[in-house]
Amino acid sequence: MKRRYLAVSAESNEPIQGKEVLDAVRNALTQLFGEYGASQAELALIRNNKQKHYFVLRCSRRALPMVRASTASLTEVNEKPAVIHVLRVSGTLKALRKKTVSAKLT
Question: Which pLDDT tens digit goes with each residue over 70-83?
Fold first, then answer.
């Protein structure tokens, strides 16, 4: 199965953990696309950078548009007002790391 890696940032007045972001995106996937759509995404948290407030999520390639739509629909994470932005998408962690270094995220 081909996968995609998403670097996402979470903007909030309160600190947000990676697990909270993952749960929020999963809940949004379930609300927008149902259980079947959420199961196709195979969503996972790969990396958590608390200092820079960005996280790396992994999903299946065919579910990428659904995951992007789910992150755009989020207005809160764990009942805290928050916005999640997709910064970069890549097919490999190595390429994502290069893209994020060039954008000065890491």
Answer: 999 999 998 989 99
- 57-70 burial, b at 16+ Cβ within 10 Å, e below that, comes to bbbbeebbebbbeb
Distant-in-sequence, close-in-space partners of 11: CB < 8 Å, separation ≥ 6: 53, 82, 83, 84, 85
Domain extents for the chain?
3-102
CATH T-level topology, domain 3-102: Alpha-Beta Plaits (3.30.70)
Query: How many Cα neighbours within 13 Å face the side chain of 37?
Result: 17
| pLDDT tens profile 49-95 | 766 778 999 999 999 999 999 999 999 998 989 999 999 999 999 99
